[in-house]
Hints:
Elements (H helix, E strand, L loop, with lengths): L1 E5 L3 H14 L3 E5 L2 H10 L4 E4 L8 H10 L8 E3 L8
Helix pairs in contact: 2-3
Amino acid sequence: MNILICDDDAATRFVLRRIVGQNLGWSVVECEDGVDALANLARRRFDLMLLDLDLPAFSGFEVLEAIRASDTMRDLPVVIVSQERRRD
């Protein structure tokens, strides 16, 4: 299974890669912003995407919107993986 992990936080990408890459044996590609995510999706077919919503460049919302508008990618399963960091 080919997975794209898109998160700007390196520690989060590391944990997700360990879970799906090492524990499940799935093939993982990582990226840290929305522009790179869309570039990866254009170059290669993925079976699943783990997507952070708070990304630099294109946000996760914009990436998801582009995926759903695409004839070739609209059926890609996307799991939102995001964390809230506000103290209030």
